[in-house]
Amino acid sequence: MDTRECAGGSATARDEAAQWFVRLQDSPLSTEERSRFDAWREESPEHQYEFDVLQGLWSVTDLLPKDRLQALCDTPPARTKRPPLLRYAVAASMLALAVGLGLFSGLNHPQAYEAQFSTTLGERRQVALPDGSLMDLNSRSVVIVHYEKGQRGIELKQGEAMFSVEHDSSRPFVVKAGAGQVTVTGTRFDVRRDEDQTRVVVEAGTVKVQGRSPEHLVTLTAGRGTAIDGQGLVATAYAVNPEELTAWRTGKLVFNNATLGEVAREVSRYREQPLRVSTAASTLRLTSVFKSNDTDALLKALPHILPVALRTLPDGSQEIISR
Q1: 0.70 cut: is pTM over it?
Q2: What spatial distance separates the first Cα and last Cα of the chain, rounded to whole Å?
Q3: Is there a contact between 260 and 305 (Cβ–Cβ < 8 Å)?
């Protein structure tokens, strides 16, 4: 077998993964960069693997003795011309493979971990968690992470987050939001918390959504969603389009026959002041795609698409009205 295959992939893929990893740690990606990054990840399973390796290792390195980590990061003299970061990435990939094979028994014992992450207006952020799971935060989101021996706990205080969960049957991944919670061992799903309800959408795998009491339980599979109201009641599972509902990750707002009431709620997440809609106009429906960082363009386009107009209220916010 080719030794590169044993290491999890080619040196080129590792180097590219390292470059993207550092870029993501530096600052939020622009819409164009996010599109290029997503395209690179989807180009081949090798790219996905190498990037996930680095994400997982980022949190694991603190658990290794300093001298052992230094020895693993040292490279042969013949490779000293390679940039230090990329040398580290190659060593990191090898180390992560060893961790995955259980060669370092000291890493088999989960460590406690607590942290809080948030985003500001219009900001999107990706966070790598200690177990290798990834968390993408939408605009104006606040998340508290609490890992312990028997459970990986997340509390979504406000906003929206997409979770790509590493499988671990011994430690369920539990997301609490409002009056409900979502429990998984490994999958990909989105949780959005609004004032009156929490919405859950599954892109891959299976999740269990529970309300205030154990009997309020719904199981979701890929392409299914549900909502939990303020009283903790869980709605019956229904079909969804995960790509549309998570388009915010690429800076898009996708509306497919959405009422203007729903549009106003979504757009308000990306504006300093909430967008309002009159009762008469709230049931009109819209199908279109806009950029989340340019909601003014959406407002300018609305009167040309639907029989509505915009008016500015005394507090400076805007309202969609019928005409």
Answers
A1: no
A2: 71
A3: no
